[in-house]
Design brief:
This protein is of the alpha+beta class. The chain contains 2 helices and 4 strands. The protein has helices at about 1-30, 75-100, and strands at about 35-40, 50-55, 60-65, 70-75. The strands form 2 sheets. A two-stranded antiparallel sheet has the order 1-4. Strands 2-3 form a two-stranded antiparallel ribbon. It starts with a helix and ends in an 8-residue tail after the last helix.
């Protein structure tokens, strides 16, 4: 009987630890945006590409790992999105020029 109570206590303790860990993980993922930060996913590049993305905003440097979600200030996320949009426009313009089409001033 005492052995069963001991096992039950161990199971309860393990469940509490697991539950606390799950709550902590959920808090990390769903942290409030009140801190001025947001999550951004940097996709992996080609195999020979740098494993990190370097971003500098207002004199502050950030080295963000590729293939992972990072929590960054809103300004950094805006700059990354702006750079991605500029790259898309450049790619479209290169394709238009390669096909002999005029550029429309995007």
């Amino acid at each position: 009987m005492a052995e069963e109570k001991k096992k039950a206590a161990e199971v309860t303790e393990a469940a509490e630890v697991t539950e606390a860990a799950e709550v902590t993980e959920a808090a990390e993922v769903t942290a409030p945006a009140d801190d001025g930060r947001e999550d951004i996913f940097i996709p992996r590049g080609p195999k020979n590409d740098d494993p990190n993305l370097f971003v500098s905003v207002n004199g502050k440097n950030y080295l963000l790992p590729r293939g992972q979600k990072s929590r960054v200030p809103h300004e950094v996320a805006e700059e990354i999105h702006r750079a991605w949009e500029a790259e898309e426009i450049r790619t479209r313009n290169e394709e238009k020029l390669a096909n002999g089409e005029p550029l429309t001033g995007e």
